[in-house]
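Entry 14. Structure prediction run on the chain below.
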Amino acid sequence: MNNRFLGAALLGLSLLVPAQASIITINFDGPGMTNFVQVNNQYPSVTFSSSGGDVVMINAQNPPYQGSVPNLICSGSPGGGVIPAVIDCTHDIILTFTNPVDNLSFGAYGNQNSVGSTFTLVDIFFAAAPAITNLPLTVSHTDKCASPIVDCAVDPVSLSYTGITQIVLHNNTDPAGTAYDDFTFSTQATTHNPEPSTLLLTGMCGIFWTGRRFLARKNRKNS
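Output returned:
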């Protein structure tokens, strides 16, 4: 009987443990992700889009770029009919998250600007805080490859904020634009995650119910 009581107590207390965060990485290298494929809602945690009639597209250039093989993403014109799609890597890239996320990081590739200069700006929107606008993203190195002017290594970007709902990469100044890969972020688990007051009530009810059964059986034995 004591074991049953202890089990119910542990069950009730376990319900009070917060849901664990999940780490999600998107590298654009899965099935069906081939050159010029449009990236939009293939991933349940985030939607990719652009502006001004452009779209986000797969750019299969790893290598020479050093992101996860074989793909990264760029902005581009989708084309249509006899007009071919064109990847330009210079227009906005927008990430809109299904649920707020924390600690977003990703890699930028192909920047030709000088070290320390800004290659693009980012606006960051939050669930419960004012937006951060026009945050500069800068070139961190000049690791050349493929040709004397192409930088194939990563310029890492780390946005160490909580509750991010959307980012907009805009106003690219690099001569040939910027490609992106390997987006990583954490998202709070939402399944079986009721309000704390509900968890407390559920746990206490389990303990109380088992305690009543224990006392009732004890009284019957003593009568």
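The CA atoms of residues 96 and 166 lie 4 Å apart.
Filed with the rest of this week's runs.
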